[in-house]
Amino acid sequence: MKKIKFIVLGAGPSGLAVAHALINAGHTLHDIIIIEQASIAGGLCRSEMVDGSPIDIGGGHFLDVKRKEVLDFLFRFMPRDEWDLYDRVSKIRIRGMEIDHPLEANLWQFPSEVQADYLESIAQAGCVRREKLPETFAEWIKWKLGERIAQEYMLPYNRKIWSIDPAQLGTYWLYKLPNVSFRETLLSCLEGKPMGALPAHGTFLYPKKFGYGEVWRRMGEALGDSLVTNCPVEHIDLATRTVNGRWQAQTIISTIPWTSWGDYCKLPKDILTAITSLKNAPIDVDFHAETLNSPAHWIYEPDESITYHRLLLRSNFAPGARGYWTEANATRSLQTDGVRFHNEFAYPINTLDKPQVVQKILVWGENNGIIGLGRWGQWEHMNSDVAVAAAMQLANKLSNKVEG
Question: Quick one: which H or E segment has residue 32?
């Protein structure tokens, strides 16, 4: 039995970042153990070589440039000169065309009669008419963009990615999306150029010679024996915070899905009920050898007769690469003899009661010396740069607490 300060469950971006941030704050490698069920660090951001070039097994992952502190943190492991900088090119397949994303900023690319259809939709949207914000995601889509755009694009796309009725999703997570302005949309059509705010990854970095998983692999390697791979969680003693009978910690930092915890320990009935209510979307990532003739880095596909919801054209961001890969909710995937990466835990689903449920779990965890972190520890769909920033903040908080 080894007694240590911190056990980190899971070596994805959150787990790796919090381990290194704790070291930056003055802890040593002897204070930390991070255990990972896979043979290599990286979690959903791992990369594999397929047909001579990398594929990111969890779908498309890119490093946003907005957080300087995150860039400085990651460049210690993979210097800036090993990354290429890209201005995002993303498109939507709709009405037989490929239109730049976001749709409302690029209606000017349609023929005039289609522009009129979609302008009319936005003009009738609830947000433009200053109607009350709805409580469900399905109604929010109509409120934000109007009935026509909702039915032709946003509702089918979200049914595909989540494989759940959008009426069962809340609206609390939509603060990330920019507002839609009818005036800006109209001016965009009149002047023939995009207007309005661009969502995340407007400018992003991607490795020159590797997949996105390389930076996380290096971070894992830098932890030495403090990273234990091929080591799934098998048992957790809640009373003593002992994992697998091998390590006893002052604090457990969990970046693994809460829905797995019932297999490791006996949970209080109310916490088990809360955990059981959490939902996630499994995603299959499939490789296709054909190289598509499009400048896009990725393309959204809302047509529900097509299984996948997104294509990633790796030849446009991985130098020398051929082919592309698709992402599909695993419940929609067809059988394939090709290369497929299955991710049972890909996206947390924002069900209506999720904020209250997650808060209940996190409070219980903290009262028992267990802290939830990252996409699965906080059950929030966060990009890797956000996950790293959250890990850095947690490490500072824990270190200040110890000093105090």
Answer: strand 32-35
Rounded Cα gap, residues 234 and 92, in angstroms: 43
Q: Residue 90 corresponds to which tokens in the numbers above? A: 């993303």
Distance between CA atoms of 268 and 259, rounded to whole angstroms? 14
Domain boundaries, the chain: 2-89+207-403, 102-191
Q: Would you call 1 helix, strand, or coil by DSSP?
A: coil
Q: What is the pLDDT of residues 136-183, one digit of tens each?
A: 999 999 999 999 999 999 999 999 999 999 999 999 888 666 667 889
| pLDDT at 1 (0 to 100) | 81
Residue written as tokens 């800036």? 80
For residue 110, the cross-strand partners are none
Kind and range of the H or E element at 342? strand 340-348
pLDDT of residue 222: 98
Both structure tokens of 240: 């003593």
273 vs 68, 96, 162, 254, 351, CA distance in Å? 40, 46, 22, 19, 15
Whole-angstrom Cα distance, residue 278 to residue 300? 26
Is the CB of residue 102 less than 8 Å from the CB of residue 198?
A: yes
165-to-157, 175, 276, 349 alpha-carbon distances in Å:
11, 20, 19, 11
CATH number of 2-89+207-403: 3.50.50.60
pTM: 0.94
Distance CA 158, CA 213 (A): 27
CB of 20 closer than 8 Å to CB of 75: no
H/E stretch holding 276 reads helix 269-276
